[in-house]
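Amidase domain-containing protein
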Amino acid sequence: MNFAEYVQYDGLGLAQLIKNKEIHPSELLKIALERSDKVNPKLNAIIIPMYEHAKQRSKQTLSGAFAGVPFLVKDLFQEYKGIPTSYGSHSLKKINYTPDFNAEIVNRWEQTGIITFGRTNTPEFGIKGITEPDAWGSCHNPWNLKHNSGGSSGGSASAVAAGIVPIAGAGDGGGSIRIPASYCGLFGLKPSRGRTPWGPQYSEAMHGAAMQHVLCKTVRDSAAMLDVVQGPEQTSLFRIETPQQKYLEVIQQTPKKLRIAFSTKSPIGTKVSKDAIQAVQQTAKLLESLGHTVVEDTPLINGLELAKDFITTWFSQFTYMQAQIKQMSGATDRDFELDSIALAAFGAKTTATEYINTLNNWGLYSTQMNLFFEKYDLYLTPSTASVAPKNGEVATPAWQKPILKGLLKLGKAHYLAQGKLVEKMVQNNLSWVPFTQLANVTGLPAMSVPLYWNKQGLPLGSQFIAPFGREDRLLQLAAQLEQAQSWLHQYKNIQI
């Protein structure tokens, strides 16, 4: 097999070849490594190689849905015992932090028979919708190397889109699966709160807002992986019932006629590009052609207030995380990016009363979505407000940097998070990605489906949000859309 043949298969397809003894896992790994050697210097997607681990595993007798398939994990909360892990930060990179445990999600991926040969690039602690950490540098988009791959699962998205692997580990705390899926033309599903595990380190992440799954090219790969990895473990705080029917079986059935609401307006009042509007409009027409009813409508939620509540929780959570990292590694503020230090300073000034009020608001947003889904089966928006930004385009505004440094020196950086200025910061930070946080805050499953490429050849995804626990509905519709308007031929246009 050569690369031209390899890239035509998804993960399940490659696994079937191995099962039929048409190819050996070591041969597939060789092709994946050769592809990585060729394109990763241009992409900067894989930052920590695991080649010896992979070569040893390829010699083992493997079983599972993806037995022998090359795989990558994100360098954030997807630890492998004995493999250096940085979370995208100098603070851990400089001490060569090496965990003595596997993350439970990794254990479950291993049970599918995958062969992991590297860890992928991510922004520092996953705090941004782009991947350009100081510790490792920008991750480039294979559709156009001048553009970013998105974040925080940017390295995984870049590697899958470029054909290094058919499927890779990802995580989503504010859009970090769906954003890079949108920018890189992939299928990306964020599961419902509690669907996938967080042990052994944690019982949950950010009150269940953050979930782990994969990025891939085909819907069936996502469905098959979720079939295997879903379900609680001993540490799980949130527990959700496992459906009786496998997702891989569900997607082979045609969905019922669905009533789908849609909106192309930014919930935080920021600009939405013509590409994003056209992507949703074209998706709406496709849905109608398949017999679904599409209605323009939005839930009764103040999007800017939701964004502020999301940011308040995230900043506070990050303050705690940074304190843990400092205690474990001996790091000082100089070992963190300026934006990270500022976020921690903001979060440190959030009072318990403010934090509890924010969480109470999360519940109110969930109630509104439950009411909304009494009228509709799904909610459609753009996944992102535009196609992928260029590398360096999404950065802390120049006017903020000297102010931040000065206030940090005085211990008063939290002043920036007071009054109307916090609204401006929210709009600056989320203007590229205003649509994804709703599903995280409410714990609802959501997906980005690659149905649109602009005239410059850059993709932009359509996001669907479903009622709680209804990944089956999302995956079933995604499979129908994939059959009606397959996107697999688009990857031939990647010229790297």
